[in-house]
Amino acid sequence: MTFSKKFLILVVGPTASGKTTLSVKLAKHLGTEIISADSRQFYKEIAIGTAAPEPSSLQHVPHHFVGHLSIFDEYNVAHFEQDVLAMLSKLFKITSVVIMSGGSGLYIDAVCKGIDKLPDSDPKLRKKLEDKFKTEGIEAIQFQLRHLDPEYYNLVDIKNPKRLMRAIEICLQSGEKYSDLRHNKPKKRAFEIIKVGLELPRKELFNRINRRADQMLIKGWVDEAKAVFPYCKLNALNTLGFKELFTYLEGKCSLDFALEKIKTNTRRYAKRQLTWFKKDKEIHWFKPTDTKEIISFVEKQMTK
To answer: What is the pTM of this model?
Structure first.
């Protein structure tokens, strides 16, 4: 299927909402490939714990940015933006449409809108901030950011230490406020973007989250966590599910307790994802079972 323009079909939604299944159906129908925008699925060592697409899905439709990194690799949203734009340039030479699917809002926005060019991370400064966080707690870095950039402090998730430390880094490196460097002006892309969102009634979504966590445990998630446990301080492993299992492996709680924490924290994460995506008024929302309606909507948008 060819069109006069190039299209990126975006499939977003909370975790466990059925994005992978729908994306594979869309890709098969349109004869195209899938780019993953789930930042947790980049790492090959933790495929079970990040609910990466099953081998059967990978065989039926080519996927990009799934298991392409090691947990030891340094990677960030700026790298992702550059890599995806390069991949799209390559794919658009052989097809008019590409699917991008995932739940990592910041990474998706980087591809759709671009990100501001900011100073690279300074390892020495980051180490100082991490030590401060470990010894003095999150309140200390909250206080420092509030002093350096009160405007950004009022916008940022003040419970996210990585975001706080990155903002402090930028302030100290540039001598300017992070909020002054954030232009947030969308960059023009060489392709059209069609946005599809998946949502379910809350009870149904939460049941899916709970069932998936149980299934991941059966598939060998604990063994996967044991294999990477010696490297648990790596940034790639500072992620939902593994943090709770590492607590279990440290002998600080039972496996049942860790599993319940995973389910609770995943449900909270899903709510945060929905809050992020609902701010984007360009997203058209469907139920995961609305395959025909979604295909019809996408094709109508591409033939306008």
So the answer is: 0.83
